[in-house]
Specification:
mainly alpha
Length: 675
Amino acid sequence: MMSVASPFETPIMKEVNLRKQEIEEKLMEDMRKRDLIKKNLEKADQLTEQMVATLDHFDERLKKLENTILPVHRQTKDLQRLQDNVEKTMNSLEHVIGYHRVAHSVTPVIQKSVGRVSVYIDSMKKLQGAIEFFSENSPGSLELNTVSSLFGKGNEMLEKEFQVCLTKHTRACTAVYLLDLISKDKLELPDFLPENVVDNLSEIAKWLTSVDKNTAYIDSYAMTRRKHLIVSLEIVRDHVRSLSAGPMRKTAGNLATPKRSMAKVTTLRKMGGMLKKDNTPAGATGSSLGKNLTVPGLEEADELEIKPFISMASVILKLLYIEHKLMQRIIPANFHQQVFVEIINGTLTMIETAFNKFLHYSKQCIENRDHSSIINIFPVAHYLRKEQRDYQEILKEADEHNRKRIPRLLAQLHDNGRNVLEEFIDTVKSDPEKESNMPKDGTVHELTSNTMMFVQQLAGNADVAGRMLSSSNNSEQNHRLCLAQYLSNILAALKLNLDKKSRTYDDTSLRSIFLLNNYHFIITALVRENQLELIRQATANIDNIYYSQIEEAKTSFMQLWRKVHTLLIAADGNIDIAPGTKLKDKERQTVKDKFKAFNNEFEELVRVQQKWAIPNQEIKVEVREQIRNLLLPPFTGMYNKFRLVQFTKNIDKYLKYTPDTVTAEIEKLFSQATS
């Protein structure tokens, strides 16, 4: 309700009236909202009362349903429990009845020979279960005795089947097939048994192991495979022997041994041939050492049966890998070492027995002073060192004796070889300087030629010889240095002995020719075979030493010829030989004496030295040239000076030689035939 403004209202009163009017309107609005909220609350109360009534009604009905269902549920659960008990009882009865039926159901399988191994072992497992059942629930019962008897019979049949199957499929291989294994990588090696046979044997072995029936099948397996290895080795050995002895000898070498061994023997023969072709004189003599230092030939190597041994050792290495792989597939792991040792014992013993022949041979090299023949067994030492790591790898599961067998054999061979090589130096030093053993023509001594052959053989087998010499300190790095030092010691011993031998000559010139020939032979052999680089590791100036010795020998040899030269240039009393001049008696005698002295000295030197030999053509020509250059100028001058002078009635007696005939006579020097 709006108030009427009085004409007498002040502004303040107007404002108060407006404020009052606003408050009254707001109050009216709040009252209206309050009435609306009150009305809504009343409706909510009504709805709540209705919901509570509905829930109470639902709860009542749910209780009625529960009271109706629970008894039915309890009855159903009881019935289910009864049904489960019935089923368990039936299963138990069926299980028990099954054990009673085992004997009847498996008897046809057990009584017959093993057909399918998996089926047979399934039957054995059923018997094993029946035995356990009757042993626990009905000990001493007839059923227990029956299944136990069948179980024992079944195990016997499986043991027999294991042996029969293994023996049946373990067949001897041909020698060619076995030798072909050598070239195969160990990862490419074939199995000797068919795949299905290996599976069957493996399954039988696992079963027999699970029932503690180990002895029979393990012994059978080890014996059969050991016999197979031994037979294989014998086949290879006999095959290589027959090839070595027959017309197919070359083929045998290619098949049965590593190429290196054959190549080495051939190399030794070539080296000997080259040395003899260059310097060795026919009919040269030498000491017993010289005779012993011949180049070992193929015949002696064949007698040692090196190729059969290396073939056997190479084949057995591959067979060991095959047997180890086969054993791992068939035999349970806890028996591996036992079985592997039993398999390999016989074969490794065969290898060691064959190897002992080389040890005995190396000792005989010392006893017989036949040192160079130690070269024959170098292929064996080389093979064992090369294959030693593979042997150790495959034998790591073997016993300690077998693991160390190959290293032990190699060490023994190295020790014996080193003893032979060390004694060789002493033998060279002590080779007797008998005059009867000396070459009459001053050519190369047999001790020199044979020693150098041996040096070249050792250098050609540097790896084997070096390791043999260095095996005492087990060094892998200095074996070439050891060989270089050893060869230097041989050369030093040879030089010392040659110096002693040269003193047996009464003629100092022949002594010089002897040393010249021998020193030249030595350095020529070293240069030709490219051995200087090796020996320089121990003696840096080895070539200079020999070249200087050769020059000293030449200088020493020329001393007698210098005496003849001195005689030619000796003063002749200034004899005047102008045309028409008549010589006095004293002058004539002087001229005659001078020619006579030259003739006698020259004739004697030519007569003696033409029987000597210088095998090397270049040195022979060089020495003759030195003699010509020394004698021809003064002789020509003397000859031309007196050839027209009447100093004697018998001129031919004194002028026996002309410059041309002197040259021809010098060409006769060292004309002893050499080969």
